[in-house]
């Protein structure tokens, strides 16, 4: 798993939730795209990762961490890199969430929508 520069890891970051992640039983390659992956292959892999996140008990904590840390790679809390980038764009830098729970509050709608039936490709 790629490591973040230390300066971006929130000071109050906790890691216990990772012990309960549904991805512990999944293929880690689902969550990070290989170099030059594009199009349908990427969409399918992202959806497969999101499907794991959808049944994860710590999805909100995971999404909260990834937003606060500005994780640049991978699917976290059901959110793809592109979905997190869209969240960052609408959050003013001065109000960027850094405290525990602030990322989840700032992106509550996006976190919920990330594993919706439409996001998982099960409805048209
Ligand atoms: S939300 Fe997804 S990436 Fe995060 S711990 Fe759960 S399964 Fe893993």
Order of helices and strands: HHHHH
Q: Roughly how many Å is the radius of gyration?
A: 14 Å
Largest sheet report: none
Shape: globular
Q: How many domains comprise the coordinates? A: 1
Ligand set: iron/sulfur cluster
Average pLDDT number: 92
The tally of helices reads 5
Beta-strand percentage? under 5%
The helicity comes to 25-40%
Q: In total, how many beta strands?
A: 0
Q: Distance between termini?
A: 33 Å
Poorly predicted runs of 5 or more residues:
none
Counting helices, strands and paired strands, the structural category is: mainly alpha
Question: How is this structure best described in words?
Answer:
- The protein has helices spanning about 40-55, 60-70, 80-90, 100-105, 110-115.
- It has about 120 residues and is mainly alpha-helical.
- The chain starts with about 40 loop residues before the first helix and ends in a 10-residue tail after the last helix.
- The mean pLDDT is about 90.
- Bound molecules: iron/sulfur cluster (SF4).
- Iron/sulfur cluster binds near residues 31, 52 and 78.
């Amino acid at each position: 798993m790629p490591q973040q520069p230390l300066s971006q890891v929130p000071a109050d970051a906790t890691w216990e939730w990772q012990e309960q992640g549904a991805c512990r039983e999944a293929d880690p390659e689902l969550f990070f795209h290989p170099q030059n992956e594009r199009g349908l292959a990427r969409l399918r892999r992202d959806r497969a990762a999101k499907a794991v996140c959808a049944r994860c008990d710590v999805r909100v904590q995971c999404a909260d961490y990834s937003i606060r840390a500005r994780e640049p790679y991978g699917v976290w809390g059901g959110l793809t890199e592109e979905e997190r980038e869209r969240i960052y764009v609408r959050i003013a830098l001065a109000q960027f969430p850094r405290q525990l729970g602030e990322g989840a509050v700032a992106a509550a709608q996006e976190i919920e929508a990330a594993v919706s039936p439409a996001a998982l490709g099960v409805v048209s």
